[in-house]
Design a protein that fits this description.
The complex is a heterodimer. By secondary structure, chain A is α/β, with parallel strands linked by helices. In chain A, 31% of the residues lie in helices and 17% in strands. The longest helix of chain A is centred in the N-terminal third of the chain and has 15 residues. In chain B, the strands form 2 sheets. Chain B has a 7-stranded mixed sheet. Classes of the chains: A alpha/beta, B alpha/beta. The complex binds iron/sulfur cluster.
Amino acid sequence: MPRTLFDKIWATHEIRSLGERTSLLFLDRVFMHERTGSIALASLAEADRAVANVATAFATMDHIIDTFPGRNDSTLMPSGTDFIRSLRHGAREAGIRLFDLDDPLQGIAHMIAAEQGIALPGLTLVCPDSHTCTLGALGTLAWGIGTSDCEHALATETLRTRRPQQMRVWFDGQLRDDVSAKDLILHLIARYGAAGGRGCAIEFAGPAISALPMNGRFTLCNMAVEFSAFTGIIAPDSRTFDYLDGRPYAPRGASALRARRYWQSLCTDTDAHFDHELRIDASACQPMVSWGTSPGQSIGVAEPIPAPQSLPTQAEQAAAERAQAYMAVTPGERLVGVPIDAAFIGSCTNSRLADLRTAAKVVAGHRVAPGVRAICVPGSTTTKRAAEAEGLDRVFIDAGFEWRESGCSLCFYAGGEGFEPGQRVISTTNRNFEGRQGPGVRTHLASPATVAASAIVGSIQAAERVGHASV
Amino acid sequence: MRPFSVHNGVVAPLRRDNIDTDAIIPSREMKRVSKSGLGIGMFAAWRYADNGRDKDTLVPDFVLNQPAYAETTILLGGTNFGCGSSREHAVWALTDYGIRVVIAPSFGAIFQRNCYRNGLLAIELAEASIDAIEAATAADPQKLTVTVDLTAGRIVTAAGEVDFSISSEVRERLLSGADDIDLTLRYADEIAAFREARYADEPWADLTDGAVPVPYGHEKQR
Ligand code: SF4
């Protein structure tokens, strides 16, 4: 029987069926961060349970730590230090590799799992964080779990998992030169709604995906969860293999050759069955910006904001009204030209080297508009150093951006650093929920190029032909 | 885990779509490395004045702040309830507050799993059935109490009954309150054998002794 990529990975991890579509699945990797991993490790220790396989468990500091230069264990978030020390203690006691604050490889969990080659095609990986799906870009079956499941994963190397339905999103055509993967995923979510992914394991495929560089694949898979997917995944190909070549935890030598031969079989067979199929014309996608408080509430930057009464269901109408009141935008208005207070480049969605290069290309030789606060936070220390080696830090600093240490930073507000109530922020992050970047803060999601251009102009603005489809 | 079989309680409508976990418990309310004491932060931004920062002043319009709903233990939610971040704190906040059942047309997948892991019953029901429960309860403060019977798969209101279904695997675990880790560790030998076979097939999955590279100074920095 023809099988999907997902079927193949599921089959190599299914230890036994527990009935009713639920299986005991083997887990190859478990990743943690200080915000939720700390609790999982503490509660595991309290229950006097051991970590089943310390060699395949990893932890990093990314969520709560400060990103100011010269940072240490103290945080702007009240009691944040407790989380940092608790994870450090838990990881040390258990013998788990921790990418600590001062580690040259520290960074956002989903970024370093890729950078270090910890996530590989055909493996399963879980992390108590919803954006774990980012790693589907490598052909890894990776998904976010809760803290109790993380304890289960650590204690048993397995998870009781209900087999999700499967969806394929086929992207025809090619992205325009001024359009990025971020625009594409916002386009998809806007078109089918934030619940459009229906808890499915979604394979992203088609000519536009084959042509998409790894960076864009990470961005696309990162936001699968904003589409309510169980996870997103892309079949590994030569771009994937090139990306993984030489990564610290990736196979080398003869093992790498054998791995590659196996990885090449990780693709969906012709005629394999999906429960749902969607088709998107990538060439029709334009630079997107969110206008509301759900990623699904996004439009092309020059399109008018929809009138609530034009939406199909009553629930959508009510949600749109609420969102428009919160965001202080009006139906019919266009986002282009709307003045901003701040611009943020960062997060596991869009703070890899290619994103920084794209943004730097837009920013180079310009100054951030007066009154706008602009911040750039590389997603990992490795990325930060690589960017500095290319002089990108100078480009941002000279333009008036803050250049920070790596971490999640202003992607989310944890009671520490945030933007001011009522401020309008254009951001390369993935969530525009109420209060996500601080109480009362209005977040507009967009691509790195759009955020960079907006920072310079001082109002929402798409960048012209910066060629970021090629990154 | 606290077992669940039959529960009697006050039902409150909170039927917005896409109520995300940030709304259920804002990040800033997750102050301690702990699963307890989170009820006070539940729906903080909607429940308390000044976007949730003034805990001494309740927002009178918010449903749970109304006297009739003070004893709420059952919530009626909208589509995609619990979407967003994977934070289990959302479930711990609900259970700490006293919520035992959430009924919605659909749930965020991670949230729904987290519910079951903590003895919180998340019931998926068609919009029309939820309308019926709301209609049977909201109109009359005397009729706000309903019975949720997990064994029978039935919700009983003053106006009638609504059936629901849930996977038997989840139902059994909720009824028994058994610990998942204990249940799984019964298969420890099977898991170990599986690992060995798996590592033979995909040796690069194995990072035990010696397989772990020196993580510093790797040659290919990108
Ligand atoms: S960068 Fe933002 S979305 Fe990504 S893991 Fe950190 S907090 Fe979550």
